Amino acid sequence: MRFLTKSFFMSLLLVAPIFSLAGHHEPGEQKVKTIVGYDTTGEAKYPLYAGSLDTIEVWMQYMQAHDDADFAAIRAANAEDFKAWVADGSIIENTDAQIALLKDWFPASNPKWTHKYSIANEFTGNDGKLQRWVTTGWELTETENGKVTKRQEIFDVLIEGGKIKNIYIAAREIPEAE
Q1: What pTM value is reported for the model?
Q2: Cα distance from N-terminal residue to C-terminal residue, the chain
Q3: CB 49 within 8 A of CB 33
Q4: Residue 157 in contact with residue 170, Cβ under 8 Å?
């Protein structure tokens, strides 16, 4: 037993320096970013990198404000130049237009969202400006005149300075059989 103990500790002494170097970075050394895709909306192809999860938290709070019909929180979360492109082809030009639409829609259909996934990503375009995005999927349940309907919604959300700047929304109805 004494030999095993000594052998075990000798192994630890040999392996410990290897583990202490794993993941070590020198001060000022940039960590390698993970490419998760590409952005090609401009004239060039830019790598999309895994983004910060704090952008997902901004979006989760925003959606909770929608579930709670908290118009003050929605207004506070939007950037000054907020704009949204809706799945039906309409464009919401600013926060005032968004709040007006929500105040009409919420009482009529009692919308509630269920989170399915969120992916944070970011890239720097040729203008040198960092863009932080969340791509996120939700299931929306509405109840109008006692009838329940559901649809899947996918949002691409540009978050700037911790605020919601732009939203692109795609959606599809979920048939009752699904």
Answers
A1: 0.80
A2: 63
A3: yes
A4: no
4 alpha-carbon distance from chain centroid: 51
Do the beta carbons of residue 113 and residue 63 sit within 8 Å? yes
Q: Bridge partners of 174?
A: 150
Q: Taking a C-beta distance cutoff of 8 angstroms, is the pair 84, 91 a contact?
A: yes
Give how many domains the chain has, as a whole number.
1
In this structure, is residue 77 part of a structural domain? yes
DSSP state of 108: H
Residue 10 forms part of a structural domain: no
pLDDT average per 10 residues of sequence, the chain (178 residues)? 45 42 48 87 88 96 97 98 97 98 96 97 89 97 94 98 98 90
What CATH number corresponds to the domain at position 161?
3.10.450.50
Domain residues for 73? 35-174
Phi, psi of 92 (to 5 degrees): -95, 110
